[in-house]
Specification:
Blueprint lengths: L1 H28 L6 H29 L5 E2 L2 H15 L2 E7 L5 E2 H21 L4 E8 L3 E8 L6 H5 L7 H12 L3 E6 L5 E8 L6
Parallel strand pairs: 2-4
Antiparallel strand pairs: 1-3, 4-5, 5-7, 6-7
């Protein structure tokens, strides 16, 4: 109960205050009376502030969840996607197919970590202007697809990720392995990068 109270207080005070600051920064970043250099500096501060908000939300999630409580994952992923794409001014499409079911808290945390890294890689490295995230729930599995229309990932980064210093991708594969899930990262034929995560779901009571 104490953890939940702290999480609630953090959300209602600190994070709400940061959201108010973000609104002001967004307005100032569009003020045509300011120089372009000044507006860009304001936009950079806004990007950093949004990153703090995302990290804060993650900590609140961990406070609320002891790894045993089951969680709905779709809203968590949608929230991260909304914030990250807003930072980089990328269009965002989000879709859920099938009947959403809860995941164990520790599983939800790892899934969120993998998808968050995929989203960040897309908006920061690909030069895309559209990011799509789709969740497909089946009887005993969940598939998450993250796709962008950017420049496409270098195949060497995927096959020799440690050599090229892409430890974020290494962490994605490690999380997937811990979930007994299958993670595929590939360069799309038309343009952009695709990330597909397939997770087995244990049905409660079975």
């Amino acid at each position: 109960m104490e953890r939940e109270r702290i999480a609630r207080d953090l959300h209602d005070t600190l994070l709400q205050a940061f959201q108010a600051v973000l609104l002001r920064l967004d307005l100032w970043g569009k003020d045509q009376d300011l120089s372009e250099d000044c507006r860009e500096q304001i936009r950079e501060v806004a990007r950093q502030t949004r990153a703090i908000v995302i990290e804060g939300r993650d900590k609140i999630f961990q406070l609320r969840n002891n790894g045993k409580e089951r969680q709905y994952i779709a809203d968590l992923i949608r929230g991260d996607g909304d914030v990250e794409t807003a930072i980089w001014q990328v269009r965002f499409r989000f879709e859920v197919r099938g009947r959403e079911r809860t995941l164990p808290g520790d599983v939800a945390n790892d899934v969120l970590g993998i998808v968050r890294e995929a989203i960040r890689n897309a908006v920061t490295h690909s030069g895309c202007d559209l990011l799509t995230v789709r969740l497909c729930f089946r009887n005993r599995s969940l598939t998450v697809r993250v796709e962008d229309n950017g420049c496409g990932i270098d195949s060497r980064v995927v096959t020799e990720r440690q050599r090229y210093g892409h430890f974020g991708i290494v962490g994605m594969y490690e999380r997937a392995s811990a979930l007994d899930a299958r993670l595929t990262i590939f360069r799309k034929n038309d343009s952009g990068t695709g990330v597909v995560l397939r997770i087995p779901i244990q049905v409660p009571g079975h």
